[in-house]
Amino acid sequence: MIRWLIKKTIRDYTATSDKIVRESYGWLAGTLGIICNLFLFAMKLAIGLKTGSIAILSDGFNNLTDLGSATVSLLGIKVSNRPPDKEHPHGHGRFEYISTLVVSFIIFGFGFELLSRGAQKIGSPEPIPFDPVGLAILVISVLIKIWMFSYNRYIGKAIGSGIYRAAAADSLNDVIATASVIATMIFGSSTSLPLDGIVGVGISIFILWTGFRIAKDTINLLLGSSPSPAFVAKIRAMIPKDQYIWGTHDLVVHDYGPGRILASIHVEVPDTVNIVEIHSVIDELERKISERLGIEIVIHVDPVCTNAEIVERISEPLRQGLRGIDPDLSVERLRVIRGRSRTDIRFRITAPANHRPYDVKTVGRLLQEVLQKENPRYECVVDERNED
C-alpha cells in the first residue's frame, strides 16, 4: 500500500537523492504517523479508562508520544532541507540527526514512565476485566502498527533517513507492547501474578534499550563516525590505476547529513605528466564520482618522482635504518613527492606473519631521524591505513 501511496502522491518518486523528493517522502510518512497515532491514542485511552488497565493506558500514551515523534520527524525533514547560508555553509542536513536524537529521548521518557508505573502495579496489583471489544481494538492496533513499521522502514531505506528508521523501530516496540497487553488481558484473570505490572516492566526495558541504541547510533553520526568500509571501497573503486594515477591516500569523508557528504582524497600522479592534461582527468573524475555516489569530492594531486636514481638514493638509507631498528621489517610502496619546501617520503612498513607487535609511530620517528641526516627537507610519512 505504501508503494501505491508514494506513486500517487510524490512526483519523480524514484529520484530519492533530490531534496524536494526526500521532503515529500518525509511529509507522507509524518502525516500517516500523526493520523494513525492520534486514532490509536483515542481508542486506547477509552479502553484503558473503561478497564482501569495501566498497561493499556501506558500503551495509549505511548501512541501519543509517537504522535509527537512524527511531528518532530516532519520538522526535521523540513529544516534539514534548507539551503546553505552564511552561518551554515554546508547546509542544515544534520538537523535530521538532531531530530532523530529527540525521538530517542521521547522513547527514553516513555520507557522510564512505563517502568515506574509497572513497578507500582507489581507492588499494588489490580484485576483486569476481560473486554472482548477492547481486545478486538487492540488487535486492530497491532495490525496498524505492523503497517507503520513496514512503511517507516521502507521510507527510511528509500531516502536513507535515520528518523524513519527510528520511527520503524518505535513502531515495532509498539507491536510488542500491544501484543503483551493483549496477553495480559487474556491471561491476567487466570493467574495470581501481577501480570499487568510485570508486562509493563518488561516492555519498558525493551523500549529503553531501543532508545539507547537509536541515541548511540545518532550521536556517533553527529560526532563524526568513520565512513563504512563499503562506502570507502566504492570511492576507491572509481579511481582508476593507469598512466595518470598511480595510487591514492588520505581519503577523508565528512557527513553533514543525508545526501550531504563531502570527501577529499589525494591521488599520486607521475611528475612528468602534463599539468593541463592531468587537470582535465581529475575534473572528469570528480564529476563522475559526484554524480554516481551523490557526494561532493575534491581530489588533490600529489606528483610522484619518477627519477629512479633519486628514488634509489633515498630508499637505500631508509632500508638501512629500518634494518637497524628491526631486521624483520621491510619497506613497501615507496613514493617520493617533492615540493618547494620539503620532500615527502611515503611508504608502508610490513612485517612477516606472527611478528611481535611494533609501534608504527615510533618506527616512523626513528626513520625520520635517519632521513633528516640525509637531507633536512625530507619528511617521513608512514601509511598506517590501507591505501592504494
Description:
The protein is α/β, with parallel strands linked by helices and 388 residues long. The protein folds into three domains: 222 residues, Cation efflux protein transmembrane domain (Alpha-lytic protease prodomain-like), CATH 1.20.1510.10; 75 residues, Alpha-Beta Plaits, CATH 3.30.70.1350; 75 residues, Alpha-Beta Plaits (2-Layer Sandwich), CATH 3.30.70. The protein is 62% helix and 13% strand. The strands form two sheets. Strands 1-2-3 form a three-stranded mixed sheet, with helices on one face. The chain has a three-stranded mixed sheet with strand order 4-5-6, with helices on one face. The longest helix is centred in the first third of the chain and has 33 residues.
Core attributes:
single chain, 388 residues, alpha/beta, Alpha-lytic protease prodomain-like, Alpha-Beta Plaits, 3 domains, three-stranded mixed beta sheet, elongated
Write the CATH fold name of the largest domain: Alpha-lytic protease prodomain-like
Uncertain parts: none
CATH superfamily of the largest domain: Cation efflux protein transmembrane domain
Order of SSEs, N→C? HHHHHHHHEEHEHEEHE
**DSSP helix fraction:** 55-70%
